[in-house]
Amino acid sequence: MAYRQVLHRHSDDDCFINVNVGGFKQRMEHDVVKRFPQTRLGRLLCCSSKEAILELCDDFSPSEMEYYFDRNPLFFCYVLNFYLTGKIHLVDGLCVISFVQEIEYWGIKERHLDMCCSNRFLELMDIVKNKDWDERSDEQQLNMSESSSIAELSASEDDMEMFEGTWCADVRRNIWIHLENPGYSTSAKAMAVASLSMVIVSVIAMCVHSMPDFHQVDHNDREIENPVLAFFENLCVLFFSAEFVLRLVVAPSAKKFLCSPLNIIDLMSVMPFYVTMLWMYLDEGESAELENVGKVVQILRLMRVFRILKLARHSSGLRSLGATLRHSSREVGMLVLFLSVGISMFSALVCFVEGDSEESTLQNMPVGWWWATISMTTVGYGDTFPVTFAGKVIGTLCIVCGLLIVALPITNIFNKFSKFYQRQKHIDLIRRNN
Questions:
Q1: How far is the first Cα of the chain from the last one, in angstroms, to the nearest whole number?
Q2: Using an 8 Å Cβ cutoff, are 168 and 250 in contact?
Q3: Helix-strand-coil percent breakdown of the chain, rounded to 5?
Q4: I want to staple 82 with a disulfide (CB 3.0 to 4.6 A). Which of 88, 212, 244, 351 is the partner?
């Protein structure tokens, strides 16, 4: 005789199963349970040994033929209703995660949810999944931020160790710390303030130099440098050059120093001055090439705009912006791709509908590209615009699509900027405390 036959030896109990869920007792017919053989209670009826029964329930009493489950008795009322109707309903006041755990325990599938509860269940699950994804994303970015901070601080400690065994190690290390860590001491802060002041003076001088009121000419009506502006220009270049050379001399590794983006910016900010002086010295007296020399000099002077980027050495925000752009190449690429597709499509459409209008300036594709670009980026200079009704409809769609296209990747880029800015502030705080 099989074990399950011994368990159900009483003829009156052969058609019933006694269930005790957290103190709530219920007698259920076999025929009702067998309607769903894949559920936990349905599988109990097929067990042929006590060990198999105890794998499906928490305890079992052979004398009373009762199965014990240490589960929520209130939820089991909904389980009983499921066996009777074939549909499960959401439990009011029960977390959707707990609901999923309960139905998984009893072997009930989500497809058995009644229509009145299925839509609400999906909405609640979407909210939970999105919240969980945001939390995991924030945790991953926080871990990445912390690991990056540790790696950067470890690299700084490695730089300090590289001074060991080199010439004038203690002096170079002390100067290097003063130059790289403004929070190290009062003198380090003073050096940082002096460097920042020179950058600001240089930017102001460059702006003033572009104003016609400060231009001067010689007796041959040739434009010459304003002596006051030239003085400040030479002073700033001298300071930047001395600072760069000093950093290079005391750097623990000259190769690593020259490969740093901030140091490359420093070099590019002073190189135009010396290249201009060298060019003018070599071409002095060559009147036939004065025009070409003047254009080269203007281009080199324009490169002084790189001095504005020197502010990144003293600004956590600018450094965070650079790190964000460096790590957001995929998002930026998506933005450029979306804009390129939209610009090409709307420029072709507007040129097609505006081609027969004599008043419209959108008669060719290049002009259409320009119009689509300023429309999708919501700049809208107003120099070119559609005049026909169909063209205005296309222009409206172009602007709306531009808003959507630009807004999609910007959110991810902004979130990355926030994380990098927090990481940079954390690093600066640790260095300041050290």
A1: 80
A2: no
A3: 70, 5, 25
A4: 88
| Full-model pTM | 0.46
For the segment 39-98, what is each residue's pLDDT rounded down to a tens digit?
Answer: 888 888 888 888 888 888 888 888 777 889 988 888 888 888 888 888 888 887 788 888
Dihedral-angle region of residue 384 (phi above 0 means left; psi in -120 to 50 means alpha; beta otherwise): beta
Identify whether the C-beta of residue 258 lies closer than 8 Å to the C-beta of residue 271: no
- CB neighbours of residue 36 within 10 Å: 19
Q: Where are the beta strands (DSSP E) in 88-245?
A: 216-217, 223-224
Contact assessment for residue 430 and residue 316, using Cβ atoms and an 8 Å cutoff: no
Task: Extract the tokens encoding 41.
Answer: 């209670």
- Token code pair at residue 225: 């440098």
Q: How far is CA 113 from the centre of its chain?
A: 38
* Sign of the torsion formed by the C-alpha atoms of 163, 164, 168 and 174: positive
Listed residue (86, 111, 114, 90) closest to 102, CA to CA: 90
8 Å CB contact between 350 and 389 = no
Q: In this structure, what DSSP letter does residue 20 have? A: E
List the structure tokens of 185: 């001491």
Given a contact cutoff of 8 angstroms between Cβ atoms, the answer to whether 65 and 13 are in contact is yes
Cα gap 7→16, rounded to integer Å = 12
Residue 319: which residues within 8 A CB-CB, separation 6 or more? 312, 424
Residue pLDDT, tens place only, 107-142: 888 888 888 888 888 888 777 776 655 555 555 554
The 10s digit of each residue's pLDDT in 139-175 is: 555 455 444 444 444 445 555 666 666 677 778 888 8
